[in-house]
Amino acid sequence: MAIRPIVVHPNEILTTKCKEVVNFDDKLKALLDDMYDTMVASDGIGIAAPQVGEAIQVAIVDLGEGQEVIEMINPEIVEIGGSEIEIEGCLSFPDVYGEVERPFYVKVEAQDRDGALYELQAEDYEARAILHEIDHLHGVLFTSKVVRYVDLEEMERLAEEQEEETE
Questions:
Q1: Of 17, 54, 106, 164, whose Cβ has the fewest other Cβ atoms within 10 Å?
Q2: Domains of the chain
Q3: What is the full per-residue pLDDT of the chain (167 aa) written as tens digits?
Q4: Dist CA 132 CA 97 (whole Å)
Q5: Which of 133, 163, 164, 167 is flagged as catalytic?
Q6: CB 32 within 8 A of CB 58
Q7: CA separation, residue 153 to residues 43, 95, 158 (Å)
Q8: What is the DSSP letter of 141?
């Protein structure tokens, strides 16, 4: 397991449609482990293979708080529903934040690290993170969906307000 350098914009791999995974081998398992370590070290909640220089359909989402790590290989969006606008950021765009409209609900079919097919349903923040990472696998960047950019100062203020609301 290793921490890999994060590919930052502009880099061609970030806008490349990734190839389908066909080999579910030790190399893939090592990539997933490295991606997880890289995401955690970078304080992220999701990461896609192109963000570590691999143009294949592999992504991870981990919201922490005792939730299971979601590993998605060759994910396909089966169903979406609802809509909400929330602020997003991206490991490949340091210190860039913006409001993005995304579905509130998503249903995805994907494969796990052993190639087994599974189905996943998610809502709200989890759905947003999953959709953000799946976009990476199609070469779609969150900046292409931003309806309004938010500076770091505003991000910090909004985070403080949200923290006060939960106390």
A1: 164
A2: 12-166 (3.90.45.10)
A3: 799 999 999 999 999 999 999 999 999 999 999 999 999 999 999 999 999 999 999 999 998 877 889 999 999 999 999 999 999 999 999 989 999 999 999 999 999 999 999 999 999 999 999 999 999 999 999 999 999 999 888 877 877 877 777 66
A4: 13
A5: 133
A6: yes
A7: 19, 11, 9
A8: -
CA torsion through residues 143, 149, 153, 158, sign = negative
Residue the block writes with tokens 């696998």: 137
pTM of the prediction?
A: 0.93
Q: What angle do CA 89, 5, 49 make, to 5 degrees?
A: 65
133 in active site: yes
